[in-house]
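1st attempt posting a full record on here, be nice pls
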Amino acid sequence: MPLHMPSIPPKIAIPLALINLASFVSQIIQIGVIDTLLPLALTNAGLGERHGGMMLSLYWIADLIGGFFVAAVLRKTHPFIPLLISGLSFFILIVVVMFAPQSALVLPATLFAGVGLILRWVVCDGLIVQLAPRDKMGRVVGFHETLMGLGIVLGPILIGWFGDDAFVMSGIALVAAIIPLFCAFAMPRIEMASTQKGAGAVFRRWIDHWDLVLIAFVAGFVEICFLSVLPLQSQRDTGLADAGLWMAAIFVFGGTICQPLVGYVSDKSGPIKLAWLCFGLLLAGAVPMALAGYDIFAAVIQFALGIAVAGLYTAAVLIAASGRGQGYQVGVLVIVSQSYTLGAIVGPSAGTSLLVMIGSWALPILVLLSAGISVLLLMMRRTTPAPGT
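the predicted structure (as C-alpha cells):
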C-alpha cells in the first residue's frame, strides 16, 4: 500500500498535514534523539551507564505523571501553548545535556521534557482523530504512526552525524521546536467532552477503560522490551550485539512501514477486530521466534511481530477515538498514552531480569504471558453481562 494520505477535502487535509509535520519533527527529538542521546551523553561525561539509564526512566515517568494534568491544560488553551511548552522543554534538555551534562540542571530539564512529550503527544493525536473523516480514520492514524516510527529512526542517525557538535544538535532542536509553532496557527482547538474532574474521576476512567489500558500497556511493554533485550540476548548467544541490533531494526521497520496497511484493516473491519488480529499474530510468533535464532526466518518473524505491536497501539488510539459522537474525550486518549508509557517503563526491567534467568526464551515467554493474559481478560469482558442486564 503506498505511503500517502487518503483523499480528504483540502479544508481538513491542510490542518492534518500541518499536525503531522509538527508531530513528526517533535518526535525526531523527543524520542528519536533523547532516548539515545540522554544516557549516552551522561555516560560519556563520566556519570556511568546506570545514571544515564535512571535519567531516561525519569523522563518517561514524568511523561506518565504529566498525563494526569494534560486535559486541564488543553481545556483552557489553544494547541499553540502546549506545543510551545513542548518545544521549549526538549530544546532546554538538549542544550543542557550537550553543554553541561554534569550539572544539576539535567534533572529538572529531564522532568520538564517528559511533561512536554505527553503534551505534544496528546495534542497531535487528539487533533488527528478529531479531524479525520470517520470512514478514513484508520488510514489517517496509520499514516501518522508511520511518521512517528520514521521519527524514531531518524533520531539516532542525527546523533551519528552530529552527536559530537553541541551547537549543531542545539540548532537542530531549536528548529524542531519552532516548526510546530508555525503549524499551530492552522490548528483548531481540541474538542473537550464534559467529564468529571478530580483524582477520583481520573482513576475511574482508568477502570472504565481497562481494556484500552491493557491493549496499550502490552504495546509499550513488548515494544520497548524487544528493543532493549534483543541486543543483549544476541550478545549472550553469539558474543556480539550486532545480530540483535539488526533484529530490533527489522522489528521497528515492520511496525513503521505497515502502519498504512494496519489503518486500512481497521477502516474495513474495525479497530477491535484489528486488536484481536494483532494479539493473534503475537501469540503465533512467540515460540517460532525462540527457535529461529538470527537467520532470515527470524527476520521475517520480527517483521511480523513489529506489525502486531505497532498495530496494537494504533487499535487502542482508534478505539479511544470511536466515542467522538458525544464530544471527543481527551482524557481517554491520555489513558492510552499513559498505559503505553507504563508498559515502556516496566518492559525493559522485566525483559532483562528474565533474560538473566532463562536466556533466549525470555522474550517469547513475556509475549505469551502478556498477550495470552490480555486475550483471556478481554474474552471474559466480552462474555460477562453488563451490570443491570
